[in-house]
Description:
The structure holds 2 protein chains of 2 kinds. By secondary structure, chain A is mainly alpha-helical.
Amino acid sequence: MLITFIIFTASPLIILQIIPLEILNFLALQGFNLHDLLTKFALLGLTMSILTLLKGFTEETSISHLLISLSSNIFWLVITWFALGLGSIETLGITVISFEISGISNTIMIDLKLFVYFAILTTFLKMVHSIMIYKKGMLKK
Amino acid sequence: MWELPLNKTKLLKITILLSQLFSLLFLGLSLHTLVTVSLAAISPETFNFTFNVDESTGDLFVILDGNLTNNASLDVTLFFEFAVLNSDGQNIAKNSTSLNINAGDTSPFSIKLLIPTEMAWSINLEKNIGTLEITFTVRTLGDLVGFTNKMVITGGGEN
């Protein structure tokens, strides 16, 4: 839980403190709100940490443990989509940023769809794993 | 009788860990490749612009050529497109090229734009007439991961 909290909640907030305000304002003027992105990321991380904490309080064989595990797997997928889409979950790994410098308008597109598919596959396997652990525990009972 | 030392649950756990590790590894490698090749491509040392006028017809030739080195660890496919548009947004000249560069290799590229003489006088970027569009795409990991930058330089923008 502590590692999840450090990586997904504390780190984005620390990065926000480190980056000079001028850079954040410059990026915001170019249409890329890094402050908003990192704050949302920290909030998603906090939810993930709470789910991990709750999971620790439940028994591996209980239905609540299974439900929390499945929820945290889905949340993991959402965080991955959020990170790969630079804050846009709905674009599924495709990020489009437009900005203008000295009268030259730039449109940048980053295509990381492949890793979204990898994340979907991994989440599916994680969910199967959670169900297998639950079933194994039930058989032991 | 031979028996698998790992049960299904442990095997699945290892598969998940390996899948996550490979995803991270390929994400890192592909991002490094995209950034390295993009920076090399936009470097002024990579390409030359040449302007020529065909004296018999008066047509203007714009040639962009250079050598691009892929200093990253994955092979890439590059796509360049240049277009010159008049003040009405119509294409006066447009050309593109695509090339594959293996990791560590250098490849030459060249794009030639022909602007007919009657059109050549209808563009003047310094006087805010006409637009230059440059599209540059780098793709890697079997074209599954990519980065595209489209620059639109409108005449008079820097003045």
